[in-house]
Design brief:
Elements lengths: L1 E4 L3 H12 L9 E4 L6 H9 L4 E4 L5 H11 L4 E3 L5 E3 L3 H11 L5 E9 L5 E5 L1 H4 L7 H6 L9 E3 H7 L10 H12 L2 E12 L11 H15 L6 H21 L3 H14 L4 H5 L1 H17 L3
Parallel strand pairs: 1-2, 2-3, 6-9
Antiparallel strand pairs: 4-8, 5-9, 6-7, 6-8
Helix pairs in contact: 1-2, 8-9, 9-10, 10-11, 10-13
Length: 298
Amino acid sequence: MIIPTYNRRELVQRALRSVLAQTRRVDEVIVVDDGSTDGTGEALAAAFGDRIVYLRQSNAGVSAARNRGLALARGRYLALLDSDDEWLPEKTRLQCEFLDANLDFGMVLCDVERVDAAGRVIDVLSRRAALPVDGFILGHVLRDPALVPASVLMRRTVYERIGGFDESLATGEDLDFHLRVAREFPIGVIAQPLVRALRCHDGLSSLARTYDDYLGVMRRAVADATPLVDADERNSALAIAYRRTARGMLFQRRWAQAWRLARDAWRLDPARRGEVLALLPMALKRMIGGILGRGRGD
């Protein structure tokens, strides 16, 4: 398994303890330190010694760190864990058992408890809500490509066929990876929480370019799905992506882009026009707030 980390000396130790506490032993633990300056390497050496493989590289981003770990890993099953997340004790046992029993499946996911900094559960990401069946589910993934990397267990053949994470993306690389796997392999779900993911801190999802990256990923994925998913499903998936991105653009007060995306979502999927209309109250609120703010000199 691979843990990328950057300046999270305490959090990565918590993540590693959750790996070493698995009921099914993890044979290979690779930590790729993406240029930390907080003493991560020394802390890990003192706490874990030769129980882990520690690699340090110049800061190149989370995708580059994951990819370096994936290239070095030797197991037949590969797993990922971001350094601010944790595995619950049964994760590897249950997911390995699934892949052992379903030899044609490439990847298995699980539900995720999303917690605050104090460890209190905010909500549970239920994978069955978006992925109602196991198998070739590209159509479902196109509509909701959300992926928590810590929830993944995959065969080595998945990485060998589709490659790693797209290092040109600052955000959305996890969505892109999920979509590429779904295009090539059946995917399964363990419908119970086996991961805790920390929310409300310094994650990449706060970057301003998040919406642009997401839109680029989705346009490419929908185009690549042309031979595999029918036109109505592709149009619906793209309409969902446009509506979600339009909402994000409204938060950033990018009015012209939000309008174009909402218009295109309206055109692509008439069945979802109510969702597009629901953006109007938020748009008016943001516009009025901006006008009043300028009037106060904010």
